[in-house]
Structures are given as structure tokens and as C-alpha cells.
TrEMBL record:
This is Phosphatidylglycerophosphate synthase. One of its GO terms (biological process) is phospholipid biosynthetic process. Keywords: Membrane, Transferase, Transmembrane, Transmembrane helix. It comes from Streptomyces avermitilis. One of its GO terms (cellular component) is membrane.
């Protein structure tokens, strides 16, 4: 392990290894520029493990909760700063794991559970401190709302992931059943093609994927043609501006889900305390989170229609072949 740390690649390569292709704008703009150089130094000069960083982030989160509970604006600012430091450490644990190969299933579980506990404790502490300061019972309801919205966000994310995985699995299964020869079309999902190439034109990618690769001069036949499945076709057709915005954001590694759980937390625990406007920041952050979650649900609804049409097309092909 010590030799691994001494032989770590230069910073640009560390960025390539550790930074996600798509991430929250808060992480891309305000965390990665600090966290990535720190990750290299931690991995190069220390024996700190990803799980130890997870514990450090959790303990800093509890420290920020103590600051929030004191209620005064100066303590709110201190709590916001400590919370952001906690989030930086929270981002570093996964990066160190990817860089050093020390990731584990238990570490992922620990990170998720500590994140949820940190949000709940900080929400209670922040709102309790403001209730003590002002006597306004609105803060009690806001504490419950913050915990509820954070839970809703991650439950919804998990369920949508499971549904999308199930749709992909069923499509792949039906394609395998339909294969009759080695030259039968391979399967590619348009969202994967676009993820790898943020500037891609959909129609051009569909033609290129369907055409396959040209065989080199004097070489053997090209690889099998690819059948491109687009489970977001209806959504893209209804909202053409989405593609332009998406391409712009992905060129900068920013995902189109602009207000996710991360931005919601930062609005509540950093922007609100800094502005000494906890109620306003919490309400705005919560409303924006709900808007984006509803947009994702609507996008999923349209995807299920694309999925149904895709399955129906397989069935029509089966009938045509049987005839």
C-alpha cells in the first residue's frame, strides 16, 4: 500500500480517475476544485482510508449541528462553514476509494447511512435553535419537512433506478430471444451514447450505431449492427430545448437534475444560515427539489411509454418472422 501511494499519477490523471462524468453543480463548482487536490495529497502522504474520511465527515456534521443549535447568526455562519467542510470530506471518501482501490460495499452503506443521519440531526438542531431564538413554531414543521424531503428524494431515486434497470433488463432479454444468427443487431441505449458524448446529435448517433463500423481494408467483416433503443424519445420530442441545455451542462460535467438532494442540503444548511434566512431558504430549496423530482417522475412516465412501444415492436417482429 505505501508504494501505491508514492506512485500516484499527476493531478490531471487523478481528476480523470476520481471525478464523476456527471455530478451536482454544487459539487463540480464548489467542492471538486478543493477536494480533488486534497485527495491526491491524502492518498500520497497518509494512510487515511475512505471509511475514516466517512467518519470524519460524519463527526464534522455533528459539530455543525452543535453550531446550528446555538441559534445566533454568528454560530449559524460557523455551522454553515463546518457543514461545507463536512461535505468536502464526504466527497473525498469516494474519490480516495476510486484512486486507491480501497472501496467496499460496507463503505458505501456507511456513507449513505451517515449522510441521512447527518441531515436529520442538522435539521433538528438548526430548526430547534431558531425556534429557541424566535419562538416561531414554523421551524418545528420545517425540521420535519427537511427530513421528509431528504428521505423522499433518496427513496424516489432508488425506485426510479430499479424501474429503469428492470426496463433495460427486459429489453435485453427480448432481444436475446429474438436473435437468430451471429449477425443479429447488437443493442445500444441512446442514453449511454449521449452520456459518453455530450455533444452528440441523436439522429446522427442512431445512424452511426445502426450502420456499424466499416471493415478495415483487407480486414474481416465489421462488427454486427447495433439496434439503438431510446427510452427518452418522447420526452426529447416534447422538450427539444432540453437536449441543448443537457449538452451544455454535460460538457461541464453538470447533470441536468439541477436541484437534487445535494443542492437541497446546501440551500438549507449553508445558504439559509449565511443569509440568516432559514425559513425562506428552506421553503425555496424544498419547492425546487419537489419541482425537479416531479420532472423526473414525468420523464419516467414518458420512458415507460417508450418502453411499451419497444416491447410491442419486438412482438410485431416475432409475428412477422413467424409468418
Amino acid at each position: 500500500m505505501p508504494s501505491l501511494r508514492r506512485d500516484l499519477p499527476p493531478l490531471p490523471e487523478v481528476r480523470r480517475i476520481t471525478q464523476k462524468k456527471r455530478d451536482a453543480w454544487w459539487t463540480v463548482l464548489l467542492v471538486d476544485p478543493v477536494a480533488t487536490p486534497l485527495v491526491r495529497q491524502v492518498a500520497l502522504r497518509t494512510r487515511i482510508t475512505p471509511n475514516q474520511l466517512t467518519w470524519g465527515a460524519f463527526l464534522l456534521g455533528l459539530a455543525s449541528a452543535v453550531c446550528f443549535a446555538l441559534g445566533d447568526w454568528r454560530w449559524l455562519v460557523a455551522g454553515a462553514v463546518v457543514y461545507h467542510l463536512s461535505f468536502i470530506l464526504d466527497c473525498m471518501d469516494g474519490k480516495v476509494a476510486r484512486l486507491t482501490g480501497q472501496g467496499s460495499v460496507f463503505g458505501a452503506w456507511l456513507d449513505f447511512v451517515f449522510d441521512r443521519i447527518r441531515v436529520a440531526v442538522c435539521a433538528v438542531a438548526l430548526m430547534a435553535g431558531q425556534y429557541e431564538r424566535s419562538g416561531d413554531t414554523t421551524y418545528i414543521w420545517l425540521a420535519a419537512a427537511v427530513i421528509g424531503l431528504d428521505t423522499l428524494r433518496y427513496i424516489n431515486s432508488l425506485e426510479i433506478f430499479k424501474i429503469r434497470h428492470s426496463m433495460r433488463k427486459q429489453i435485453k432479454s427480448r432481444l436475446r430471444e429474438a436473435r437468430r444468427s451471429e449477425n443479429q443487431a447488437e443493442l445500444a441505449f441512446m442514453e449511454d451514447l449521449l452520456r459518453n458524448n455530450p455533444e452528440a446529435d441523436i439522429e446522427q448517433d442512431q445512424r452511426s450505431a445502426a450502420a456499424g463500423q466499416e471493415a478495415p481494408e483487407g480486414g474481416t467483416a465489421a462488427r454486427p449492427q447495433a439496434q439503438v433503443i431510446d427510452l427518452h424519445e418522447e420526452f426529447r420530442h416534447r422538450f427539444p430545448a432540453y437536449l441543448r441545455a443537457r449538452s451544455f451542462l454535460l460538457r461541464h460535467r453538470i447533470r441536468t437534475h439541477l436541484v437534487s438532494g445535494i443542492e437541497f442540503q446546501m440551500g438549507v444548511f449553508i445558504i439559509g444560515p449565511f443569509l440568516d434566512s432559514v425559513i425562506g431558504a428552506t421553503i425555496v430549496s424544498g419547492a425546487l427539489l419537489l419541482v425537479f423530482e416531479l420532472a423526473i417522475i414525468y420523464k419516467l412516465l414518458l420512458s415507460t411509454r417508450d418502453f411499451t412501444r419497444t416491447i410491442d415492436s419486438f412482438e410485431r417482429d416475432d409475428v412477422a418472422r413467424a409468418a
